[in-house]
Write a structure and sequence with these properties.
The protein is of the alpha+beta class. It contains two helices and four strands; from the N terminus they run ααββββ. The protein has one domain: Nuclear Transport Factor 2, Chain: A (Roll). It is 28% helix and 24% strand. It has a four-stranded antiparallel β-sheet, with helices on one face.
Length: 113
């Protein structure tokens, strides 16, 4: 597969799994033995773990929207810089509802709207 084909898979994964919230379709984009180098504590291995992590993101931000800022590909490796934003449910985790924007490396709390 070419670097452009790999990037297309990542773009499609972002759109289908995160933006359309179709976690059940993750198997179209993640290998059964997928290795998550940033696995959450207690996350299952492989595809099951990828689905588990994606579902957790969506549960935390039900109106989640992921935006790819940049994709870089070489050979069979792809790096992505992306932003995730959404409104957590009011009172989630003991916090009042607020807008979350999560760019790579840090996050900001913004007022609704």
């Amino acid at each position: 597969m070419s670097p452009d084909e790999h990037k297309a898979i990542l773009r499609a994964s972002c759109e289908v799994v995160f933006n359309q919230h179709q976690v059940d379709r993750a198997g179209e984009f993640y290998a059964p033995d997928y290795l998550d180098r940033a696995a959450a504590p207690g996350q299952a291995p492989g595809l099951a773990g990828a689905k588990q992590k994606c579902a957790a993101y969506i549960a935390a931000l039900p109106d989640m929207r992921a935006t790819i800022q940049e994709l870089v590909a070489e050979g069979d490796k792809v790096a992505v810089a992306w932003t995730v934003e959404g409104d957590p449910p009011t009172g989630a985790a003991g916090h009042p509802g607020h807008r979350e924007v999560l760019p790579v490396g840090w996050h900001e709390h913004l007022p609704p709207g």
